[in-house]
Amino acid sequence: MPTLYNDVFIAGAGFHLPGEPIDNAAMDAFIAPINRVSGRIKQRILAENGIRSRHYAIDAEGHTRESNAQMAAAAVRAALADAGCGLSQIELLACGTSGGDSIMPGFANMVQGELGAPPMATHTSIGVCAASLGALAFAAGQVQQRDARSALAVGSDLPSRMFKRSRFAPRGYDADFNAHFLRWMLSDGAAALVLRHRDELPDDRPRLRLKWVHQKSFSGDHPVCMQLGMNLEGTRSYLDYDSSSAAEADGALSLRQDIRLLPNLFDIAIHEYAGLVQRGLVDPQRVDHFLCHYSSERFRPVVDELMRAAQLAIPQERWWTNLATRGNTGAASLFVMLSEFVRTRELKEGEQIFCFVPESGRFTVAYALFVVERPRRGVVVSAPDAAAVAAPHDASSVTDPRLARLLRSLAQVWHDYRSAAWRTPLVQSITQRRFTTAAYVRWMEGWIPQVREGSRWMREAVASMRAPYEALGEIVETHAGEEQFDFKILFDDYRSAGGQAESIDALRRNPGGEALNAYLHAQAASESPVGLLGAIYVIEGTGQRIIPALLPLLQAQLELPPGAFRFLAYHGANDENHLARWLRAVSLVLQADPSGQADNAIIATARRTAQLYLMQWEDAGAETPT
Fold first, then answer.
1. What is the separation of C-alpha 242 from the centre of its chain, rounded to a whole number of angstroms?
2. How far is CA 448 from CA 318, 437, 442, 493, 546, in A?
3. How far apart are CA 533 and CA 161, in angstroms?
4. Of the residues 43, 95, 548, 619, which has the fewest C-beta atoms closer than 10 A?
5. Which CATH number applies to 386-622?
6. Residues paired with residue 319 on neighbouring β-strands, in sequence order
């Protein structure tokens, strides 16, 4: 599932391309053909890739004029200037690259040092072209969670050092085609994005909000396509040679791409894209600008044809690329594209920018969606941490050792249930801000019949109580009386939210809810069903712990009147009292049953109720559009 955000905006963007533009005729001064065969490869590749100029950080003698870290630092300064902020405001630096100037330490640390930046968190994403989106996803997650108010996501690559004449000439044309191929494809550059939480933005002018990032690797399905550090056969690491010179001589330090495998990459990428469309995360008809990082113009019609075959095409007039003038800068490419795009175009509120990066290393695909919107101020509702949703009762708060043991056992049931509930499609769609009014209506539609049955099975249980549990029956009867009309409140909420059923009997039933009702009625019909206190623990705990964590997110996402949330608000405020009454009831049962059998019955019923309640969550989520 893609990583989703709600509060992450691009506050500034900048890129840096070293030196003057190098056209195709001037390339020979930097990346010269070694012989006639090499020259023919050059002509063929340049005729297909559509690149007319690019930039190199090396000079004509092969000397490095700017390091990778220096290029990245220059891009950061450009982005900060665009954002109108300084390094002192940045709390995280995340960098993506195919390789830094050194193997260790991490590239982000080297960029931080190059900038002379103050202490901050750093993160290095190493890969190939999608490494920058890995850095973006990490930085955005930290900003969304408010672990960093402002962050930098950087993409930077400097491949020209691997292609200069001095590294190829000693071997003549001993280098294989896959090693020669990339010499005419790749060039140098860096770009950076300043990410800020909506509350940290200085004004409310329209900006790019990052909606989501999605990455998936298929490395377990396919062999290596693009690699550096292995011999031609891919069987020996450069570290396995007796010396670096031996590794160099055997070609283990040559960057290669097996172009025969590339069709598989695009086939994978389009299938993954189709999945995003199917889950409602991107609509091709609503995409205003498509920024696709393909390494060569030769692959543009391939991507277009595959998208058309899947009936998910984005019209060509919405595609945008600067490949022809900026070249293929590897991990920096998408950020270079995005930075130039947003700085040279007047974006309109509501526009969507869809980005796509197919990485040929061992087949990883990455996507991101941005939308132009105003950073509306107000109370920002953050997704709650599932682990922070505590158990209904703390065992340390009681003095009775037996009651404490029971509460600890129930707490384990609770935390297993809470963790599983948080991973259900229903809760995920709420916490990831994909929930809709239609989904809310369907959720309530299946929930109302279960709530109606609550007071019924409680009263059935009261009728089944025998000595010495008569006093328990009185407590349960009070609880049933308080909740006997709750289902009517929920039905009114359902109607306020747009539900169309005229009566409760016309509602579609939730299979999980029906199974839970059947189980609870069966338990209630048994003699002295004290185990139902375990069911109440889970049900009331859900209302008092989970629902209050979700309610602010529901209210923030759904444009509904307050009257559509009365049931959820009521239980979030009142189930604490219900749970206090539950604790008194449990204490009464334990006093009446010195054998300990009641403890086991309460725990077993709580565990089964949790399982069936989860079935209800799952069934409700299966109906929720994704």
1. 43
2. 46, 16, 10, 10, 18
3. 71
4. 43
5. 1.20.910.10
6. 290
Rounded CA gap, 483 and 464, in Å? Answer: 19
For 586-593, which contacts have Cβ atoms below 8 Å and span 24 or more sequence positions?
586/403, 586/406, 586/533, 587/400, 587/403, 588/469, 588/471, 588/472, 588/475, 589/469, 589/472, 589/530, 589/533, 590/400, 590/402, 590/403, 590/406, 592/468, 592/469, 592/472, 593/468, 593/530
Q: Which stretch of DSSP H or E encloses residue 367?
A: strand 364-373
- Summarised one tens digit per residue, pLDDT across range 544-571 is 888 888 888 888 889 888 889 988 887 6
Structure tokens at 441: 């209506």
Which tokens hold the place of 399?
Answer: 């003095």
Q: Which of 467, 397, 440 is nearest to 550 (CA)?
A: 440
Residue 23, classified by CB atoms within 10 Å of its CB into exposed (0-12), middle (13-18) or buried (19+), is exposed
Contact between 547 and 614 under an 8 Å Cβ cutoff? The reply is: no
Q: Give residue 56's region: left, alpha or beta (phi > 0; psi -120 to 50).
A: beta
Sequential DSSP letters for 379-434 = ---PPPPGGGS--SS-GGG---HHHHHHHHHHHHHHHHHHHHHHTSHHHHHHHTT-
Encoding tokens for residue 408? 């600890």
For the chain, the structural domain boundaries read 3-223+258-373, 386-622
User: Cα-atom radius of gyration of the chain, to the nearest Å?
Assistant: 31
What pTM does this model have? Answer: 0.64
Q: Which two tokens stand for residue 199?
A: 């509350």
Other Cβ atoms less than 10 A from the Cβ of 242: the count is 7
Question: E-assigned strands of 198-301?
Answer: 207-217, 226-227, 256-257, 289-292
Q: Hunting for tokens 């891919």 — which residue is that? A: 234
pLDDT tens, position by position, 49-68: 899 999 999 999 899 999 99
Q: Is the pLDDT of residue 338 over 90?
A: yes
- Per the CB < 8 A criterion, the answer to whether 200 and 365 are in contact is no
Hunting for tokens 């948080």 — which residue is that? 422
Q: How far, in whole angstroms, is CA 144 from its chain's centroid?
A: 11
Question: Regarding the domain delimited by 3-223+258-373, which CATH topology (the fold level of the hierarchy) does it fall under?
Answer: Peroxisomal Thiolase; Chain A, domain 1 (3.40.47)
What does the alpha-carbon distance between residue 97 and residue 108 come to, in Å, rounded to a whole number?
A: 9
Q: Under DSSP, is residue 36 helix (H, G, I), strand (E, B) or coil?
A: helix
Q: How far apart are the first and last CA of the chain?
A: 10
On average, the pLDDT of the chain sits at 87
Single-letter amino acid, residue 538: V
